[in-house]
Amino acid sequence: MTLDPAAQITRLLDIMAALRDPRTGCPWDIEQDFASIAPYTIEEAHEVEDAIQRQAWDELPGELGDLLLQVVFHAQMAREAGMFDFADCAAAISDKLIFRHPHVFGDESRDKSAEQQVEDWEAIKAVERAGKAERGTLDGVALGLPALTRALKLQNRAARVGFDWPGPADVLDKITEETAELVEARDTLGPDAMEEEFGDLLFVMANLGRHLKIDPELALRRANAKFTRRFAAIEAALAADGRRPEDSDLAEMDRLWNAAKVAEKTAG
Q1: Most-buried pick from 47, 54, 227, 241 (CB within 10 A)?
Q2: What is the C-alpha separation between 49 and 78, in angstroms, rounded?
Q3: How far is Cα 6 from Cα 83, in angstroms, rounded to an integer?
Q4: 33 vs 169: CA distance, rounded Å
Q5: pTM of the predicted model over 0.85
Q6: How do residues 151-167 score in pLDDT, each as one tens digit?
Q7: In 3-state terms, the chain is what percent helix, strand and coil (to 5)?
Q8: Distance in angstroms (rounded) separating the CA atoms of residues 125 and 116
């Protein structure tokens, strides 16, 4: 059965309004505000990405629904405060999409390369930022982004005005320099300096990913997934002997790790 999208949106908005009703609504929902809901919004976005990475297509409608709920929740709180409502959110993104796609909704030619469309997109966004009084090159890069993703966006912005290394080899040289500074901080400067130098090293690693056309956030997520798989293989191998990791030692677990690594490569 095909559902009516407009009717389902209306139904969702009505449910959210009922949950927030000060007399008959849910006490938990009534107590929430923008700040308390924001972490759930971020969490739901990550769960959408997780379902996509796992290709769990049967789960994706539910995860997208959870993310949509976050938009509806924020819009309902804003409506109660007389700030804006869901219709304003929908209108804002519709207007933005039309403005940013003159080659679809305007009279510009669609006969462009992907690279040219990216350049045009960035030029349009620069006009939007100017309208918001965002005059600095790095203005408007959201503070709430994951740190690696934000580093990448900051670096991309700086690169567009010429502040960038010529190529990956220069970034690798900088990584060597930052590694030496981290060692020096560890040995002589103390924990605060060590944290700062560690952050500098991570920032340059993100820049290397950019030059190699690798998304550092995605690369680290995949590394996390690989670590999880291989450690689970260690646990499974030990469990076959009725043991747990704490009953083993590093040498044995390292052998089991390497075995899991070989098994993955063979299966692949």
Answers
A1: 47
A2: 27
A3: 23
A4: 48
A5: no
A6: 999 999 899 889 999 99
A7: 75, 0, 25
A8: 14
Contact yes or no for 203/212 (Cβ under 8 A): no
Coil, strand or helix at 229: helix
Distance of CA 195 to the CA centre of its chain: 23
3-state class of 46 per DSSP? helix
Cα–Cα nearest to 74, from 66, 85, 59, 65: 85
Taking a C-beta distance cutoff of 8 angstroms, is the pair 76, 20 a contact? yes
Q: Is the pLDDT of residue 175 over 60?
A: yes
> Which residues have a Cβ under 8 Å from the Cβ of 83 and sit 6 or more positions away?
none
Tokens 């959201």, residue?
142
pLDDT at 221: 87
Q: Which amino acid is at 242?
A: G
Alpha-carbon span 198 to 184, nearest angstrom? 11
Residue 160 covered by a domain: yes
Tokens, residue 60? 């994706």
Residue 227 lies in a domain: yes
CB atoms within 10 A of CB 226: 13
Q: What domain range is 58 assigned to?
A: 5-91
- The verdict on residue 96 lying in a domain is no
Which residue type is seen at 202?
Answer: L
Report how far residue 157's alpha carbon sits from residue 164's, in angstroms, rounded to the nearest whole number: 10
Instruction: Indicate if 10 and 86 belong to the same structural domain.
Output: yes
Contact 208, 175 (CB under 8 A): yes
CA distance 146 to 7: 35
Are 12 and 65 spatial neighbours (Cβ–Cβ below 8 Å)? no
State how far Cα 247 lies from the chain centre. 37
Residue closest to 86 by CA, chosen among 7, 21, 10, 3 = 10
Indicate the length of the chain as a whole number.
268
